[in-house]
Recover the amino acids of this structure.
């Protein structure tokens, strides 16, 4: 449980970092600190607080939060290495560590190379992937996931990976929602870093029309982002509708579905306000972090929908030949026509 | 874990090496590789002048107030700072117009002045707002403020640079290698700060002052294209022919 709570803390910190990063771009502060990894020649952690003025406040704060998140992810990876019995989850921790290190280096390159569009967009895209990794780790270490959301153990048998409640339609539509959301974020990042955020100055129309009467690169990418919002909303509604119609009793699916609906509403509103306010920096940045929350929520829903596809308790991919590190994980063996489970003393399920 | 660590180290090394090789600010740009200038390309006995006045037609827009409270060191009590976009003086005199000879000098080459040009950062503003230099001439960017600035030039023909000046008195030295009209300067710490430098390979340029006038002196006889540039009102050109020791006056008129 402690590991799970720590993983949640890391995920929340990453969301805060994404907001801080959004503020940097929204305020045009990306180059207010010309050097990296130092800050005006100071070591990052010793930069005087009274000199955090103007754009430096946003840029340097972003660097400080990034340092904290980096340290937290190092701690998470170490904790997973030490305590997590499932090899694939441990590896996820290592991937998150490699990703956040790469993200930090990308951030430095954006400064040293004067914010090249491709690097800036990659920095934005990788930030979302790091966030997804922390969210996933938090999910995989959660008590709900590990007890398979209260499903009877007999339904999750190593020899049979397709228990009765696997819904492949839900899995497909949820995966599509998550994939399209990430693509929408990339289009949004491209729009932001190519200064196309106000290429279409009105909303909901485009120069007074449904489809822009004139075209340029900026107008095209901006319009693609608006069309993307419609597509994401459509598949998200399909996912949510499917859950509410077929799986209303499954709390682990219902809650993220309703949250996804709420976040989408907020996100579309923020997107409209971003245009109508001429890219107010707070609204603009909230739009960025809410996009990350939409992605994370869709990811959680997707992973939970796919839970039956993961090995049940008694993961097969634990270290071969070794006893599980956590005594709660006891393999379940299936016999012909009969599910048998190993019980721990005291009646706890394996 | 060991293999993953090695891979991670390689990625970090590759990225760091790429960053080290990448672009970055430099305090000194490469000297221009243009042909050697003629020592005295213009005969003073026959040189002429082009002068004039730049005017603004209509009612000038009301400048917006600039909020500088994001940096307490920039705020001056009792002083309201406004934008410098369109500065119009008495009689419609338009300030900060960069006027220069765009065409007509042929293959003449001019010596690079040894006197440096000063671009100051004072009161959290670039002073002057518009100026001209010659290719290869030294530009000194000085921080006269008790706060940090970053000197960020965003040219298209020359090399971009971004230099931090955390302390008052710090000076950045630069020489442009290619002519370019205009090179924008900004400060990412203080987003309202803007300056524009016109870089030319000859000395025939001027910036209009509070009276809107300009003067291009010492031009050899010939036909020239004179361009007037303003940061928001655009550019205008006129053709003028001057004879030996002749002075001609051409004016420009801008409007919103």
């Amino acid at each position: 449980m402690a590991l799970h709570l720590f993983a949640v803390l890391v995920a929340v910190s990453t969301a805060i970092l994404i907001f801080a990063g959004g503020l940097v771009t929204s305020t045009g502060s990306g180059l207010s600190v010309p050097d990296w990894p130092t800050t005006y020649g100071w070591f990052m952690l010793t930069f005087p607080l009274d000199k955090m003025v103007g754009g430096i406040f946003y840029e340097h704060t972003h660097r400080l939060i990034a340092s904290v998140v980096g340290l937290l992810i190092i701690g998470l990876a170490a904790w997973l290495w030490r305590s997590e019995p499932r090899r694939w989850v441990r590896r996820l921790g290592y991937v998150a560590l490699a990703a956040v290190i790469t993200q930090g280096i990308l951030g430095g390159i954006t400064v040293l190379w004067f914010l090249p569009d491709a690097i800036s967009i990659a920095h934005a895209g990788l930030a979302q992937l790091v966030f997804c990794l922390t969210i996933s780790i938090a999910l995989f270490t959660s008590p709900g996931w590990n007890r398979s959301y209260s499903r009877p153990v007999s339904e999750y048998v190593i020899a049979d990976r397709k228990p009765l409640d696997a819904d492949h339609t839900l899995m497909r539509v949820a995966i599509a929602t998550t994939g399209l959301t990430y693509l929408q974020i990339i289009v949004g990042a491209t729009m932001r870093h190519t200064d196309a955020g106000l290429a279409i100055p009105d909303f909901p129309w485009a120069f007074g029309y449904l489809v822009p009467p004139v075209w340029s690169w900026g107008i095209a990418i901006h319009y693609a982002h608006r069309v993307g919002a419609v597509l994401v909303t459509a598949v998200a509604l399909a996912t949510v509708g499917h859950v509410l119609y077929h799986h209303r009793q499954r709390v682990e699916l219902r809650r993220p579905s309703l949250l996804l609906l709420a976040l989408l509403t907020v996100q579309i509103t923020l997107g409209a306000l971003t245009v109508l306010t001429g890219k107010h920096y707070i609204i603009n940045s909230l739009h960025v972090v809410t996009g990350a929350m939409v992605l994370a929520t869709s990811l959680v829903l997707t992973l939970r929908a796919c839970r039956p596809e993961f090995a049940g308790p008694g993961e097969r991919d634990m270290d071969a030949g070794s006893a599980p590190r956590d005594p709660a994980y006891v393999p379940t063996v299936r016999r012909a026509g009969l599910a048998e489970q190993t019980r721990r003393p005291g009646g706890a399920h394996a | 874990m060991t293999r993953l660590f090695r891979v991670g180290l390689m990625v970090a090394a590759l990225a760091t090496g790429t960053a080290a090789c990448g672009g970055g600010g430099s305090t000194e740009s490469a000297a221009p590789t243009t042909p050697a200038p003629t020592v005295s390309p213009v005969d003073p006995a026959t040189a002429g002048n082009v002068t004039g006045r730049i005017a603004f037609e209509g009612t000038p827009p009301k400048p917006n107030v600039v909020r500088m409270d994001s940096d307490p060191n920039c705020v001056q009590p009792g002083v309201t700072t406004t934008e410098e976009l369109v500065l119009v003086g008495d009689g419609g005199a338009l300030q900060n117009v960069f006027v220069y000879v765009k065409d007509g000098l042929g293959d003449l080459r001019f010596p690079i002045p040894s006197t440096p040009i000063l671009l100051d950062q004072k009161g959290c503003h670039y002073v002057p707002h518009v100026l001209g230099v010659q290719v290869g001439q030294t530009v000194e960017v000085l921080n006269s403020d008790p706060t940090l600035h970053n000197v960020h030039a965003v040219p298209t023909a020359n090399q971009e640079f971004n230099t931090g000046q955390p302390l008052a008195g710090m000076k950045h030295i630069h020489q442009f290698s290619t002519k370019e009209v205009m090179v924008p300067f900004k400060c990412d710490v203080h987003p309202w700060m803007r300056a524009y430098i016109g870089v030319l390979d000859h000395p025939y340029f001027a910036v209009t002052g509070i009276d809107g006038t300009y003067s291009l002196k010492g031009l050899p006889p010939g036909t020239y294209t004179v361009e007037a540039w303003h940061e928001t009102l655009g550019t205008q050109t006129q053709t003028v022919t001057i004879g030996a020791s002749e002075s001609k006056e051409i004016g420009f008129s801008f409007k919103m």
About this structure: The longest strand of chain B covers residues 48-56. Chain B is about 10% helix and 40% strand. Residues 27 and 173 of chain B are 6 Å apart (CA to CA).
